[in-house]
Amino acid sequence: VAQVRREAQVEHAVALGAAEVVVTDDGEALDDTEGYRLVVDGIGGPLFGAAVAKLDADGVAVTYGGTANANLELSLRTLYAKGRASIRGLNLYAVSSVTPPATWLPRLLNLARHRRLELDALHVSSWQEVGAIAQGLLDRTFTGKAVLRVD
Q: pTM of the prediction?
């Protein structure tokens, strides 16, 4: 199951392999879905709490960011009632200190060289537009990644 914020994103999620797509930015639409073994969340806020509430008894929720809200809204009773369900945090900086990027970067570059990476929703601009691009990311006026050219 994939979760997207807007209807316009459904087709992209399906193209990436999602068998089911739920459109919600607060998690309320998750009420009609089955339980999950794994939740991976970079949004935070009420969406994270709603997803944790749908975990299976042995499910794991991983949070790696809080683009909508750095605070996780969650009733601990919801988690405790699940049995052995757990929440984990993923900090890429901490992971990089254990496995330096130099160990996996060559593989990533090789995939890019052979055109095996798809960079959908890539927004490319001049670094001189950094303020507007940063605001666009924060306001979610575009999806995907931003690349700034040094010119």
A: 0.71
